Fold this sequence. Notes:
The protein is an alpha/beta fold. 35% of the residues lie in helices and 19% in strands. Among the domains are: 10-136 and 346-361, ATPase, nucleotide binding domain (Nucleotidyltransferase, domain 5), CATH 3.30.420.40; 390-571, Alpha-Beta Complex (DHBP synthase). It has helices spanning 36-40, 50-59, 80-84, 96-123, 134-146, 191-201, 210-217, 226-232, 261-266, 279-307, 322-330, 348-361, 397-406, 439-448, 465-468, 486-491, 513-526, 547-556; strands spanning 10-14, 21-26, 29-35, 69-72, 128-131, 150-160, 163-173, 176-186, 311-315, 336-338, 390-393, 411-414, 428-432, 458-461, 481-483, 501-503, 505-507, 530-535, 561-564, 568-571. A hairpin with a 2-residue loop joins strand 2 and strand 3. It is globular, with a radius of gyration of 23 Å. The structure holds fe (ii) ion (FE2). Fe (ii) ion (FE2) is lined by residues 134, 138, 157, 160, 316-317, 345.
Amino acid sequence: MSGSTRTPTVLGLCSFTHDSAAALISGGSLTGMAEEERLSGVKHTRDYPAVAVRWLLNDAAISAADVDIVAYNFDRNRYLGGIAGSVPYLLSPVTRSRALPRAASFAVVHQRFRGRMQKLREAFPNARVLGTVHHKAHGLYAYAASGFDEAAVLVVDSLGETCTTSIAAASRIGDRVRYRAAETISDPASLGYAYGAVTGHLGWRRGDEEGTVMALAALGDPARFRDLLAQAIPLTWTGFALDPSLLPLRVLRSGWPRVTPAFTAATCPARDPAEEITQVHADLAAALQERTEQVIAHLARRARSITGAKRLCVAGGVAMNCVGIGKVIGDVLFEEVYVPPAPGDSGTAIGAALAAYRDATGVLAGGPAGSCYLGPSYPSFIPEAPPGMSARQVTQPARFLAAQLAEGKIAGLFQGRLEAGPRALGNRSILASPLVPDVAARLNAAVKFREPFRPFAPVVLADRAADYFDLAQPSPFMSVAVPVTGLAQDTIPAVVHANGTARVQTLDPEHNPFLADVIGCFLALTGIPVLINTSLNVKGKPISGTPLMALECLAASGLDGLMLDGGWWVSK
Ligand SMILES: [Fe+2]
């Protein structure tokens, strides 16, 4: 920091692991955040987020030399605990064979860190490069985004250094924040690891397709494997454990199976991704999901009892389990439960920056509260129609788009700033009418190519949400699955999952005026204030963060048209 009164410029990074992202605090506020995959096109990229960083610096009109602090989303020294913590596993015949490989893998990660931090020092010559305790980055971001005064913060993920689960108490007086870790659970007890392990066993990519397993769970009977999952993930007084005879000790390298032969023998052979999905797969998914919900509920109760807080923030990859979050809300332990728009690791780019800024200044930077549209925008982009298509500027674009949707067209919407987090929330979305017969099949055939049991999510005007969804609180970021009403069952069954729920986005017009306008016009035409809202991408690709990616998505899919800023309509 050169001037005595200038606030530090802090770049937060999630990098070198998965879902790379960058965030910038400049002038005392968060100026933006972007997930690299949305700009580079490489899904879940682990690369240094070069494009996102370049955009952030350009946007703030600064250079790399102006960055005072680079805040990384892991703390190197904490990996050492994984080495020492492996020793006791030598004593048990069940874990003995993995104890030393586990210790060695923590040592490798610790060692690798040095080179990565050195590269960051070279890229930002005037900056201090600081590590951040991973769960603090998750938790501080969730708390800052919530806008709550006082809250319990529950972080549940796969692994942050050696920690897998944590509960903190957070409160603020003015812009000063108190964030106190109250309780932590360490690896190998990891709910994210367990869910990923079974996801992989069922033939989907862990760290990516857990949501597919969650959706499949609604078609299964949890009773068949209920006892097995209770044995695999036993509850403890303060949380839970994993049984290594079923879910073996983690080694931080590929090539180490995540379920044991005993688990396979008790369930089913590992499913090949191309293999048919049968009842046994649905039943295993159901038991896993049920157990996960029980563990999350147990942790939420624990968070309530040790912090006494009336509000809860949840972050970490497991917070993306919208069915589990729905159950926590249904338990009514808390007046409100908040999941930030980017609960997974990409959000720790913001959290690391917030933590470093707070350590340097004593205060919480402004900006994250309630914000999800944090990425780049392209307001002056003029699209060139791909071959065989036409581009034109329409007047009254909201009314035009609503009419297209009411006619049964499937349309992309690219407007404003890119969303943070896994959900498209109306700025990089595909919209469709829930009233069109076989709309899910059409969406799947046109663009999504998803398993037929996976539902599409609805977006509803917030003031009409209660007519269609049994909601105890707003769901602006699609982070909760809620039961639907009889009216929804009757009028918009396309967005209702097999278990009678929907992962709804409730839309406050202030947060996205254009999308609210589109839904308002659709309501006028059809009587229904609900649209299907899914992300603007084809299967296997990240959400289209740039207009060129959006146009590629249009060209490569069965989308009928794409609406861009300025009322540009590109259609086939
Ligand atoms: Fe994490």
